[in-house]
Write a structure and sequence with these properties.
The protein is α/β, with parallel strands linked by helices. The chain is built from 12 helices and 12 strands. The protein has a 6-stranded parallel beta sheet, with helices on both faces. Strands 7-6-8-9 form a 4-stranded parallel beta sheet, with helices on both faces. β4, α5 and β5 form a beta-alpha-beta unit. α6 crosses α7 and α8 crosses α9. The termini are far apart. Its main location: other. Pfam families: Peripla_BP_4. It is found in: Cell envelope.
Length: 354
Amino acid sequence: MKQSRKKIAGVIVVLLLSVCFYVGGKQFFKHQKSIDEVKHIKIGVSIYDEYDTYIAELMQEVSSLAKKKEMEEKIAITVDVQSAGGSQITQNDQIESFVDKNYNVVCVGLVDRTDASGVIDKAKSADIPIIFFNRELVNEDLERWDKIYYVGADAVQSGVMQGEIILEACKKNFESIDKNKDGILQYVIIEGEPGHQDALVRTEYSVKTVVNAGYTLQKLGNEIANWNKAQAITKMTSLLEKYGEEIEVVISNNDEMALGALEAIKNSNIESYPLVVGVDGVQGGLESVKKKEMIGTVYNDYRGQAKAIVEMAFALSLQQDFPEELNLIENKSIYLPYQKITYDNVQEYIRMLN
Protein backbone atom coordinates (compact mmCIF):
# COMPACT_ATOMS: atom_id res chain seq x y z
CA MET A 1 0.00 0.00 0.00
CA LYS A 2 2.87 2.36 0.86
CA GLN A 3 4.62 1.54 -2.43
CA SER A 4 1.38 2.28 -4.28
CA ARG A 5 1.11 5.68 -2.59
CA LYS A 6 4.74 6.45 -3.45
CA LYS A 7 4.07 5.61 -7.10
CA ILE A 8 1.03 7.90 -7.16
CA ALA A 9 2.99 10.73 -5.53
CA GLY A 10 5.77 10.26 -8.08
CA VAL A 11 3.31 10.49 -10.95
CA ILE A 12 1.84 13.70 -9.52
CA VAL A 13 5.32 15.26 -9.22
CA VAL A 14 6.14 14.38 -12.84
CA LEU A 15 2.84 15.86 -14.02
CA LEU A 16 3.43 19.05 -12.06
CA LEU A 17 6.94 19.39 -13.47
CA SER A 18 5.71 18.86 -17.01
CA VAL A 19 3.14 21.65 -16.55
CA CYS A 20 5.51 24.11 -14.89
CA PHE A 21 8.00 24.39 -17.72
CA TYR A 22 8.77 28.07 -17.31
CA VAL A 23 12.59 27.87 -17.23
CA GLY A 24 15.33 30.33 -18.13
CA GLY A 25 13.12 33.26 -19.09
CA LYS A 26 10.95 31.36 -21.59
CA GLN A 27 7.32 32.25 -22.13
CA PHE A 28 4.57 30.14 -20.61
CA PHE A 29 1.45 29.36 -22.61
CA LYS A 30 -1.41 27.15 -21.47
CA HIS A 31 -1.87 25.97 -25.03
CA GLN A 32 0.76 26.18 -27.72
CA LYS A 33 -0.82 26.14 -31.15
CA SER A 34 0.58 24.02 -33.94
CA ILE A 35 1.09 25.16 -37.52
CA ASP A 36 -1.92 23.07 -38.51
CA GLU A 37 -4.16 24.96 -36.08
CA VAL A 38 -3.27 28.39 -37.44
CA LYS A 39 -4.01 28.85 -41.13
CA HIS A 40 -3.25 32.56 -41.45
CA ILE A 41 -1.14 34.94 -39.37
CA LYS A 42 -2.02 38.63 -39.57
CA ILE A 43 0.50 41.19 -38.33
CA GLY A 44 -0.46 44.85 -38.12
CA VAL A 45 2.41 47.36 -38.24
CA SER A 46 2.06 51.07 -37.51
CA ILE A 47 5.10 53.27 -38.20
CA TYR A 48 5.46 56.88 -37.13
CA ASP A 49 6.33 58.17 -40.63
CA GLU A 50 6.70 56.51 -44.02
CA TYR A 51 9.28 59.08 -45.17
CA ASP A 52 11.93 58.01 -42.66
CA THR A 53 14.56 56.22 -44.79
CA TYR A 54 15.76 53.95 -41.99
CA ILE A 55 12.21 52.88 -41.12
CA ALA A 56 11.47 52.28 -44.81
CA GLU A 57 14.48 49.93 -45.07
CA LEU A 58 13.44 48.19 -41.84
CA MET A 59 9.90 47.62 -43.15
CA GLN A 60 11.16 46.27 -46.47
CA GLU A 61 13.24 43.75 -44.56
CA VAL A 62 10.30 42.79 -42.32
CA SER A 63 8.10 42.15 -45.37
CA SER A 64 10.85 40.15 -47.08
CA LEU A 65 11.52 37.98 -44.04
CA ALA A 66 7.78 37.41 -43.50
CA LYS A 67 7.48 36.08 -47.06
CA LYS A 68 10.45 33.80 -46.47
CA LYS A 69 8.91 32.57 -43.21
CA GLU A 70 5.63 31.96 -45.02
CA MET A 71 7.37 29.67 -47.52
CA GLU A 72 9.39 27.85 -44.86
CA GLU A 73 6.46 27.20 -42.52
CA LYS A 74 3.78 26.75 -45.22
CA ILE A 75 1.44 29.19 -43.52
CA ALA A 76 -0.05 32.42 -44.88
CA ILE A 77 1.42 35.57 -43.28
CA THR A 78 -0.01 39.04 -43.92
CA VAL A 79 2.02 42.08 -42.89
CA ASP A 80 -0.13 45.22 -43.02
CA VAL A 81 2.13 48.29 -42.73
CA GLN A 82 0.48 51.66 -42.16
CA SER A 83 2.01 55.10 -41.60
CA ALA A 84 0.68 57.34 -38.85
CA GLY A 85 2.04 60.42 -40.60
CA GLY A 86 3.46 61.79 -37.37
CA SER A 87 0.10 61.75 -35.55
CA GLN A 88 -0.33 59.76 -32.34
CA ILE A 89 -4.11 60.00 -32.70
CA THR A 90 -3.88 58.42 -36.17
CA GLN A 91 -1.65 55.70 -34.80
CA ASN A 92 -4.11 54.91 -32.01
CA ASP A 93 -6.87 54.61 -34.64
CA GLN A 94 -4.69 52.25 -36.69
CA ILE A 95 -4.21 49.96 -33.69
CA GLU A 96 -7.96 50.00 -33.08
CA SER A 97 -8.47 48.92 -36.70
CA PHE A 98 -5.97 46.07 -36.28
CA VAL A 99 -7.86 44.99 -33.16
CA ASP A 100 -11.22 45.11 -34.95
CA LYS A 101 -9.78 42.90 -37.70
CA ASN A 102 -8.58 40.34 -35.14
CA TYR A 103 -4.90 40.61 -36.04
CA ASN A 104 -2.64 38.19 -34.17
CA VAL A 105 0.07 40.72 -33.26
CA VAL A 106 0.55 44.47 -33.57
CA CYS A 107 3.97 46.05 -34.07
CA VAL A 108 4.41 49.74 -33.34
CA GLY A 109 7.05 52.37 -34.06
CA LEU A 110 5.64 55.00 -31.74
CA VAL A 111 4.93 58.54 -32.86
CA ASP A 112 5.33 59.73 -29.27
CA ARG A 113 7.35 57.39 -27.06
CA THR A 114 5.93 59.07 -23.95
CA ASP A 115 2.33 58.43 -25.01
CA ALA A 116 2.02 54.67 -25.50
CA SER A 117 -1.04 54.26 -23.26
CA GLY A 118 -3.61 54.49 -26.07
CA VAL A 119 -1.86 51.79 -28.10
CA ILE A 120 -1.40 49.55 -25.07
CA ASP A 121 -4.97 49.88 -23.83
CA LYS A 122 -6.49 49.04 -27.23
CA ALA A 123 -4.32 45.96 -27.77
CA LYS A 124 -4.56 44.76 -24.18
CA SER A 125 -8.36 44.94 -24.21
CA ALA A 126 -8.34 42.40 -27.06
CA ASP A 127 -5.44 40.36 -25.62
CA ILE A 128 -3.29 41.05 -28.70
CA PRO A 129 0.48 41.12 -28.01
CA ILE A 130 2.40 44.30 -28.91
CA ILE A 131 5.94 44.54 -30.24
CA PHE A 132 7.25 48.09 -30.04
CA PHE A 133 10.32 48.81 -32.15
CA ASN A 134 12.91 51.48 -32.93
CA ARG A 135 11.36 54.09 -30.62
CA GLU A 136 11.68 52.82 -27.08
CA LEU A 137 8.67 53.41 -24.87
CA VAL A 138 9.24 54.49 -21.28
CA ASN A 139 9.97 51.66 -18.86
CA GLU A 140 6.77 52.14 -16.87
CA ASP A 141 4.73 51.42 -20.02
CA LEU A 142 6.87 48.41 -20.91
CA GLU A 143 5.99 46.89 -17.53
CA ARG A 144 2.24 47.52 -17.79
CA TRP A 145 1.50 44.11 -19.32
CA ASP A 146 3.28 40.81 -19.82
CA LYS A 147 2.59 40.82 -23.58
CA ILE A 148 4.47 44.04 -24.35
CA TYR A 149 7.89 43.71 -26.01
CA TYR A 150 10.55 45.99 -27.47
CA VAL A 151 13.07 45.56 -30.31
CA GLY A 152 15.70 48.22 -30.88
CA ALA A 153 19.22 49.32 -29.96
CA ASP A 154 21.04 51.17 -27.18
CA ALA A 155 21.14 54.85 -28.14
CA VAL A 156 24.05 55.51 -25.77
CA GLN A 157 26.22 53.12 -27.78
CA SER A 158 25.48 54.98 -31.02
CA GLY A 159 26.48 58.32 -29.48
CA VAL A 160 29.69 56.87 -28.06
CA MET A 161 30.59 55.38 -31.44
CA GLN A 162 29.98 58.70 -33.21
CA GLY A 163 32.42 60.25 -30.75
CA GLU A 164 34.94 57.47 -31.36
CA ILE A 165 34.76 58.04 -35.14
CA ILE A 166 35.55 61.73 -34.57
CA LEU A 167 38.41 60.78 -32.24
CA GLU A 168 39.92 58.41 -34.81
CA ALA A 169 39.86 61.21 -37.39
CA CYS A 170 41.44 63.65 -34.94
CA LYS A 171 44.24 61.24 -34.07
CA LYS A 172 45.06 60.82 -37.77
CA ASN A 173 45.05 64.49 -38.72
CA PHE A 174 43.95 66.99 -36.10
CA GLU A 175 45.83 69.84 -37.76
CA SER A 176 43.71 69.75 -40.90
CA ILE A 177 40.47 69.43 -38.90
CA ASP A 178 41.36 72.37 -36.63
CA LYS A 179 41.02 74.92 -39.41
CA ASN A 180 41.58 78.04 -37.28
CA LYS A 181 44.47 76.44 -35.36
CA ASP A 182 43.08 77.32 -31.93
CA GLY A 183 43.30 73.76 -30.56
CA ILE A 184 39.51 73.67 -30.12
CA LEU A 185 36.96 71.72 -32.17
CA GLN A 186 34.14 74.04 -33.18
CA TYR A 187 31.05 71.95 -33.91
CA VAL A 188 27.35 72.10 -34.76
CA ILE A 189 24.63 69.56 -34.04
CA ILE A 190 21.85 68.53 -36.42
CA GLU A 191 19.25 67.00 -34.10
CA GLY A 192 16.28 64.72 -34.59
CA GLU A 193 12.98 65.49 -32.88
CA PRO A 194 12.65 67.67 -29.77
CA GLY A 195 12.58 65.43 -26.71
CA HIS A 196 13.23 62.21 -28.64
CA GLN A 197 15.35 59.86 -26.55
CA ASP A 198 17.71 58.81 -29.36
CA ALA A 199 18.32 62.43 -30.37
CA LEU A 200 19.05 63.53 -26.83
CA VAL A 201 21.30 60.58 -26.01
CA ARG A 202 23.24 60.60 -29.29
CA THR A 203 23.88 64.32 -28.93
CA GLU A 204 25.05 63.99 -25.34
CA TYR A 205 27.32 60.98 -25.69
CA SER A 206 28.93 61.87 -29.01
CA VAL A 207 30.22 65.10 -27.49
CA LYS A 208 30.99 63.57 -24.08
CA THR A 209 33.11 60.84 -25.68
CA VAL A 210 35.34 63.37 -27.44
CA VAL A 211 35.63 65.60 -24.36
CA ASN A 212 36.49 62.63 -22.13
CA ALA A 213 39.37 61.80 -24.50
CA GLY A 214 40.95 65.17 -23.69
CA TYR A 215 39.78 67.40 -26.54
CA THR A 216 38.23 70.83 -26.06
CA LEU A 217 34.99 71.46 -27.95
CA GLN A 218 32.98 74.58 -28.61
CA LYS A 219 29.37 74.34 -29.76
CA LEU A 220 28.58 77.01 -32.32
CA GLY A 221 24.95 76.06 -32.78
CA ASN A 222 22.37 73.32 -33.11
CA GLU A 223 19.30 72.90 -35.29
CA ILE A 224 16.40 70.44 -35.18
CA ALA A 225 15.67 68.76 -38.52
CA ASN A 226 13.29 65.95 -37.42
CA TRP A 227 15.35 63.14 -39.01
CA ASN A 228 14.59 64.68 -42.42
CA LYS A 229 17.09 65.42 -45.22
CA ALA A 230 15.21 68.38 -46.70
CA GLN A 231 14.90 70.05 -43.31
CA ALA A 232 18.58 69.41 -42.66
CA ILE A 233 19.53 71.19 -45.89
CA THR A 234 17.61 74.26 -44.76
CA LYS A 235 18.94 74.17 -41.20
CA MET A 236 22.56 73.54 -42.23
CA THR A 237 22.35 76.36 -44.78
CA SER A 238 21.35 78.67 -41.94
CA LEU A 239 24.27 77.51 -39.81
CA LEU A 240 26.70 77.99 -42.70
CA GLU A 241 25.45 81.51 -43.32
CA LYS A 242 26.10 82.29 -39.67
CA TYR A 243 29.38 80.45 -39.03
CA GLY A 244 30.80 79.43 -42.44
CA GLU A 245 34.41 78.23 -42.25
CA GLU A 246 34.31 78.27 -38.45
CA ILE A 247 32.44 74.94 -38.46
CA GLU A 248 34.94 72.10 -38.09
CA VAL A 249 32.65 69.21 -37.15
CA VAL A 250 29.01 68.40 -37.95
CA ILE A 251 27.42 65.80 -35.67
CA SER A 252 24.12 64.54 -37.05
CA ASN A 253 21.71 62.30 -35.16
CA ASN A 254 21.08 60.24 -38.31
CA ASP A 255 22.37 59.71 -41.86
CA GLU A 256 19.52 61.41 -43.67
CA MET A 257 20.19 64.68 -41.86
CA ALA A 258 23.95 64.21 -42.36
CA LEU A 259 23.34 63.86 -46.11
CA GLY A 260 21.22 67.01 -46.01
CA ALA A 261 24.00 68.84 -44.18
CA LEU A 262 26.50 67.67 -46.81
CA GLU A 263 24.30 68.94 -49.61
CA ALA A 264 24.12 72.34 -47.94
CA ILE A 265 27.91 72.35 -47.53
CA LYS A 266 28.39 71.54 -51.23
CA ASN A 267 26.05 74.39 -52.16
CA SER A 268 27.92 76.87 -49.95
CA ASN A 269 31.03 78.94 -50.65
CA ILE A 270 33.25 77.36 -48.01
CA GLU A 271 36.49 75.85 -49.28
CA SER A 272 37.44 73.53 -46.44
CA TYR A 273 34.69 71.04 -45.55
CA PRO A 274 34.04 70.10 -41.90
CA LEU A 275 33.92 66.53 -40.64
CA VAL A 276 30.41 65.05 -40.94
CA VAL A 277 29.30 61.97 -39.01
CA GLY A 278 25.88 60.25 -38.94
CA VAL A 279 24.02 57.23 -37.61
CA ASP A 280 22.06 54.36 -39.23
CA GLY A 281 24.18 53.06 -42.10
CA VAL A 282 21.50 53.58 -44.75
CA GLN A 283 22.57 53.15 -48.39
CA GLY A 284 23.05 56.88 -48.98
CA GLY A 285 25.18 57.16 -45.86
CA LEU A 286 27.37 54.23 -46.88
CA GLU A 287 27.95 55.68 -50.34
CA SER A 288 28.89 59.01 -48.77
CA VAL A 289 31.43 57.34 -46.47
CA LYS A 290 32.83 55.46 -49.46
CA LYS A 291 33.33 58.80 -51.27
CA LYS A 292 35.02 60.23 -48.14
CA GLU A 293 32.35 62.91 -47.81
CA MET A 294 31.15 61.65 -44.43
CA ILE A 295 33.95 60.48 -42.16
CA GLY A 296 31.72 57.71 -40.84
CA THR A 297 28.39 56.47 -39.64
CA VAL A 298 27.11 54.01 -37.06
CA TYR A 299 25.26 50.99 -38.41
CA ASN A 300 21.85 50.47 -36.82
CA ASP A 301 21.19 46.79 -37.53
CA TYR A 302 17.84 46.95 -39.33
CA ARG A 303 18.23 43.38 -40.60
CA GLY A 304 18.72 42.03 -37.09
CA GLN A 305 15.79 44.08 -35.80
CA ALA A 306 13.56 42.92 -38.66
CA LYS A 307 14.44 39.28 -38.00
CA ALA A 308 13.66 39.68 -34.31
CA ILE A 309 10.29 41.33 -35.07
CA VAL A 310 9.25 38.58 -37.51
CA GLU A 311 10.39 35.71 -35.29
CA MET A 312 8.66 37.19 -32.25
CA ALA A 313 5.44 37.91 -34.13
CA PHE A 314 5.38 34.38 -35.51
CA ALA A 315 5.96 32.78 -32.09
CA LEU A 316 3.36 35.00 -30.43
CA SER A 317 0.77 34.16 -33.10
CA LEU A 318 1.25 30.46 -32.43
CA GLN A 319 1.57 31.02 -28.67
CA GLN A 320 4.99 29.41 -28.73
CA ASP A 321 8.26 30.19 -26.97
CA PHE A 322 10.62 32.65 -28.63
CA PRO A 323 13.71 31.13 -30.28
CA GLU A 324 16.56 31.10 -27.76
CA GLU A 325 18.93 32.98 -30.11
CA LEU A 326 16.82 36.13 -29.74
CA ASN A 327 18.32 36.73 -26.27
CA LEU A 328 15.52 38.75 -24.71
CA ILE A 329 16.37 40.77 -21.63
CA GLU A 330 13.95 39.79 -18.84
CA ASN A 331 11.77 38.22 -21.57
CA LYS A 332 10.86 41.74 -22.69
CA SER A 333 13.46 43.55 -24.77
CA ILE A 334 15.99 42.92 -27.53
CA TYR A 335 18.85 45.34 -28.16
CA LEU A 336 20.87 44.80 -31.32
CA PRO A 337 24.43 46.19 -31.13
CA TYR A 338 25.53 49.17 -33.23
CA GLN A 339 28.67 48.97 -35.39
CA LYS A 340 31.12 51.69 -36.46
CA ILE A 341 31.54 52.29 -40.17
CA THR A 342 34.41 54.32 -41.62
CA TYR A 343 36.17 54.42 -44.98
CA ASP A 344 38.31 51.47 -43.84
CA ASN A 345 35.40 49.02 -43.58
CA VAL A 346 32.50 50.61 -45.48
CA GLN A 347 32.92 48.31 -48.48
CA GLU A 348 32.15 45.29 -46.25
CA TYR A 349 28.79 46.80 -45.28
CA ILE A 350 27.94 47.78 -48.85
CA ARG A 351 28.52 44.17 -49.93
CA MET A 352 26.63 42.78 -46.95
CA LEU A 353 23.56 44.97 -47.47
CA ASN A 354 23.28 44.53 -51.25
